[in-house]
Amino acid sequence: MANILIADDNEFSKQVLIDILEIDGHNVFAASDGKEAVLIYEREEIDLIITDIAMPAMNGLELITQIKKFNPAAKIIAMTGGDSAPVNSLSVAKEMGASYTLMKPFKPVQILDAVSLLLNSKA
Questions:
Q1: CATH assignment of 3-118, given 3.90.180.10, 3.40.50.2300, 3.40.50.300, 3.30.300.30?
Q2: Is the peptide bond before 105 cis (omega within 30 degrees of 0)?
Q3: Model pTM greater than 0.90?
Q4: Among 39, 67, 104, 123, which one has the highest count of C-beta atoms within 10 angstroms of its own C-beta?
């Protein structure tokens, strides 16, 4: 069981991810934007972050930058829907330090595979 932080301003998407990850046995923390996610990250032992790119207050790219300042080895999955962010936003997220990227919508098995891959990797 891992501690996973989800940052997504879309309540439906966030709840779906929470359900998928909790059923898989993980402890899930949820934030509605990057600022809230940073506050949670600072006070909890987080093993993995899953962030949307397009969010108010602090977007996913800004969140990746902040988290990498705290912990350069942080494991981060960045996700976005095609219409809510520039097409290259996932490439930019990868360049900024995201460990894995996903385009919404994705299947539950895709997020579970990405989580498993990152949690089981040494890097």
A1: 3.40.50.2300
A2: yes
A3: yes
A4: 67
